[in-house]
């Protein structure tokens, strides 16, 4: 009896030890997902993915260099454009390592701590992007409402403070997210639905109570995304009213024309965000490939198109790019 009891106790301890080890292992790494059900086609996904990231990096670096070199672009509007380019560049670099490693090398494993770090940077720069769009709308509001005081209101010091406030707001708001995720226990699946780490994806894998994570995530979205959307809507309504009140038709069109590029950036950001949200909320019956496709569009499409839009619509940037390829043969 004692021997049987000892054996049962030994087997029980082994089972508990194995279960604890399994839980610890599930907490120590996650498995990232590329294209669901099509691992043999990762290479076909990797080629356009590398093209997209190359376009993002080249386009945004070009805008940053042109704004630094071209003296005529040393104005508040273009400083905010430089902030947008730097944010797009940072956001792309946050997701690029895992996206490329999954689709090109089929390296799908990521450690838990690295996942938390990537999660922090992706959510932080996503919030910064929203804040920069609000800053660009404020810039156009001041330019159209107070054209004579534009340079005195938006000084270099004010612009620097706005940039610091946008970055600090997003970083402080997102900072608790990795710590809230780290306290969770993962004892079921450790497979994430995308090739990068997001808070909502990791939270769904937990077998503990995630109500605190859900509530804080909702409050963070309201504080950053929803609040910024309301401010943007109000800002562009006021800008439109002010522009329509300008007596000269030429000046009216000129003022509205300077708003087209920021409006395009806002539309790219929020249309991609709303599309992904609707697919996630109401498209549960759809193929996982569609969910992956929409998530990648949300993450990459605005970053690819923003530098293209500004390069096409900004004469000085467009001329500098053409001059870089054609040399002195092209005059402004």
From TrEMBL:
<feature type="domain" description="G-protein coupled receptors family 1 profile">
    <location>
        <begin position="59"/>
        <end position="310"/>
    </location>
</feature>
<keyword id="KW-0297">G-protein coupled receptor</keyword>
<dbReference type="GO" id="GO:0071396">
    <property type="term" value="P:cellular response to lipid"/>
</dbReference>
<keyword id="KW-0807">Transducer</keyword>
<feature type="transmembrane region" description="Helical">
    <location>
        <begin position="215"/>
        <end position="239"/>
    </location>
</feature>
<comment type="similarity">
    <text>Belongs to the G-protein coupled receptor 1 family.</text>
</comment>
<dbReference type="InterPro" id="IPR000276">
    <property type="entry name" value="GPCR_Rhodpsn"/>
</dbReference>
<keyword id="KW-1133">Transmembrane helix</keyword>
<feature type="transmembrane region" description="Helical">
    <location>
        <begin position="150"/>
        <end position="172"/>
    </location>
</feature>
<dbReference type="GO" id="GO:0004930">
    <property type="term" value="F:G protein-coupled receptor activity"/>
</dbReference>
<feature type="transmembrane region" description="Helical">
    <location>
        <begin position="78"/>
        <end position="96"/>
    </location>
</feature>
<keyword id="KW-0675">Receptor</keyword>
<keyword id="KW-0812">Transmembrane</keyword>
<dbReference type="InterPro" id="IPR000725">
    <property type="entry name" value="Olfact_rcpt"/>
</dbReference>
<keyword id="KW-0716">Sensory transduction</keyword>
<dbReference type="GO" id="GO:0005886">
    <property type="term" value="C:plasma membrane"/>
</dbReference>
<dbReference type="InterPro" id="IPR050402">
    <property type="entry name" value="OR51/52/56-like"/>
</dbReference>
<feature type="transmembrane region" description="Helical">
    <location>
        <begin position="42"/>
        <end position="66"/>
    </location>
</feature>
<keyword id="KW-0472">Membrane</keyword>
<dbReference type="InterPro" id="IPR017452">
    <property type="entry name" value="GPCR_Rhodpsn_7TM"/>
</dbReference>
<feature type="transmembrane region" description="Helical">
    <location>
        <begin position="260"/>
        <end position="283"/>
    </location>
</feature>
<dbReference type="GO" id="GO:0004984">
    <property type="term" value="F:olfactory receptor activity"/>
</dbReference>
<keyword id="KW-0552">Olfaction</keyword>
<protein>
    <recommendedName>
        <fullName>Olfactory receptor</fullName>
    </recommendedName>
</protein>
<feature type="transmembrane region" description="Helical">
    <location>
        <begin position="116"/>
        <end position="138"/>
    </location>
</feature>
<keyword id="KW-1003">Cell membrane</keyword>
<dbReference type="Pfam" id="PF13853">
    <property type="entry name" value="7tm_4"/>
</dbReference>
<feature type="transmembrane region" description="Helical">
    <location>
        <begin position="289"/>
        <end position="310"/>
    </location>
</feature>
């Amino acid at each position: 009896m004692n021997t049987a009891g000892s054996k049962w106790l030994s087997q029980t301890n082994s089972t508990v030890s194995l279960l604890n080890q399994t839980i610890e292992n599930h907490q120590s790494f996650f498995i990232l997902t590329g294209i669901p059900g099509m691992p043999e086609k990762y290479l076909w996904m990797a080629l356009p993915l590398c093209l997209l990231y190359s376009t993002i990096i080249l386009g945004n670096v070009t805008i940053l260099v042109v704004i630094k070199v071209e003296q005529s672009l040393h104005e508040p509007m273009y400083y905010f454009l430089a902030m947008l380019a730097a944010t797009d560049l940072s956001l792309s670099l946050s997701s690029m390592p895992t996206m490329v490693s999954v689709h090109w090398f089929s390296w799908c494993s990521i450690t838990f701590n690295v996942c938390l770090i990537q999660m922090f940077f992706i959510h932080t720069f996503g919030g910064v992007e929203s804040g920069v769009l609000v800053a660009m709308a404020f810039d156009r509001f001041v330019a159209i409402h107070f054209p004579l005081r534009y340079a005195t209101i938006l000084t270099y010091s004010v612009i620097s403070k706005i940039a610091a406030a946008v970055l600090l707001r997003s970083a402080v708001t997102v900072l608790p997210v990795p710590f809230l995720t780290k306290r969770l226990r993962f004892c079921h699946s450790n497979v994430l639905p995308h090739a990068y780490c997001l808070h909502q994806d990791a939270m769904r894998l937990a077998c503990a109570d995630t109500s605190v994570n859900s509530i804080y995530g909702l409050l963070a979205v309201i504080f950053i995304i929803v609040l910024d959307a309301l401010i943007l809507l109000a800002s562009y309504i006021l800008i439109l009213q002010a522009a329509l009140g300008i007596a000269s038709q030429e000046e009216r069109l000129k003022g509205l024309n300077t708003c087209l590029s920021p409006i395009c950036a806002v539309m790219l950001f929020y249309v991609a965000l709303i599309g992904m949200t609707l697919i996630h909320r109401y498209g549960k019956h759809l193929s996982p490939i569609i969910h992956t496709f929409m998530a990648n569009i949300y993450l990459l499409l605005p970053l690819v198109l923003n530098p293209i839009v500004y390069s096409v619509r900004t004469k000085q940037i467009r001329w500098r790019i053409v001059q870089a390829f054609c040399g002195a043969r092209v005059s402004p």
